[in-house]
Amino acid sequence: xxxxxxxxxxxxxxxxxxxxxxxxxxxxxxxxxxxxxxxxxxxxxxxxxxxxxxxxxxxxxxxxxxxxxxxxxxxxxxxxxxxxxxxxxxxxxxxxxxxxxxxxxxxxxxxxxxxxxxxxxxxxxxxxxxxxxxxxxxxxxxxxxxxxxxxxxxxxxxxxxxxxxxxxxxxxxxxxxxxxxxxxxxx
Length: 187
Ligand code: SF4
Known about the structure:
- The protein is an alpha/beta fold.
- It has one domain: Aldolase class I (TIM Barrel, Alpha-Beta Barrel).
- Helices cover 21% and strands 26% of the residues.
- It contains five helices and nine strands; from the N terminus they run E-E-E-H-E-H-E-H-H-E-E-H-E-E.
- The protein has helices at 52-60, 80-92, 105-109, 112-119, 157-160; strands at residues 3-13, 21-26, 48-51, 68-72, 96-100, 123-126, 147-150, 167-171, 177-181.
- The strands form two sheets. A seven-stranded mixed beta sheet has the order 3-1-2-4-5-6-7. A two-stranded antiparallel sheet has the order 8-9.
- A hairpin with a 7-residue loop joins strand 1 (3-13) and strand 2.
- Helix 1 runs parallel beside helix 2 and helix 2 (80-92) runs parallel beside helix 4 (112-119).
- It is globular, with a radius of gyration of 15 Å.
- The chain starts with a strand and ends in a 6-residue tail after the last strand.
- 34% of the residues are buried.
- Bound molecules: iron/sulfur cluster.
- Iron/sulfur cluster is lined by residues 29, 31-33, 36, 38, 41, 73-75, 102, 128-129.
- Residues 29, 31-33, 36, 38, 41, 73-75, 102, 128-129 line the site of iron/sulfur cluster.
C-alpha cells in the first residue's frame, strides 16, 4: 500500500472545493513560488507519513458526509505514486476528486503516471501562484493565471458562479489557530 507525506488534514470543510470535502495538504514542494502562503509545506522531509488505506478509512468514518476529496499543499504531483492510489480508491468509493498543482496541465499530461492521476480527477486547478497576478475574486485560487480544468462531467464552469471565497478559522483545545480557504486577510 502506498503512502503520502502530509502536513495537515481537515476532515470536513466547505472552503476548498465543491460541497463538503475531506481535504489534505501534502508536505513538500520544489516549485517555490514567490509569495507562497504555505512555505512550511516546502520541506519534503517534514510532515507525517500516512498510508492511503488509513486515509480512505478515515474518510469512510465521516458518516457519509463527504462529497469528495481535495488535495493541495505542498505539491501533490511530487508524490505521484501515493496520489494515484488515493484518487483511484476515492473514485472506486464514489467520491469526487479535486487537485491543485503548481505545475501546468500540459506538463502533467506528458508523464504517464501523472496522466493516469488526471484520469481519476474531476477538477484540476493548475499553475503556480504568481504574486504579481494576485487576485482573490475567483474561488479557491490566489492568482489570476491559475486555471480551472474540468476533467469530467461532474462539475462545470457554471458551478463556479455559485461559489464565493471564504475563510475557515479553527481553534484547537491547546489554543492553536488554523486558517484555511482563500481571501484577502490583509484588507
Ligand atoms: S506550488 Fe503551491 S505550495 Fe508550492 S510554492 Fe507554489 S504556492 Fe507554494
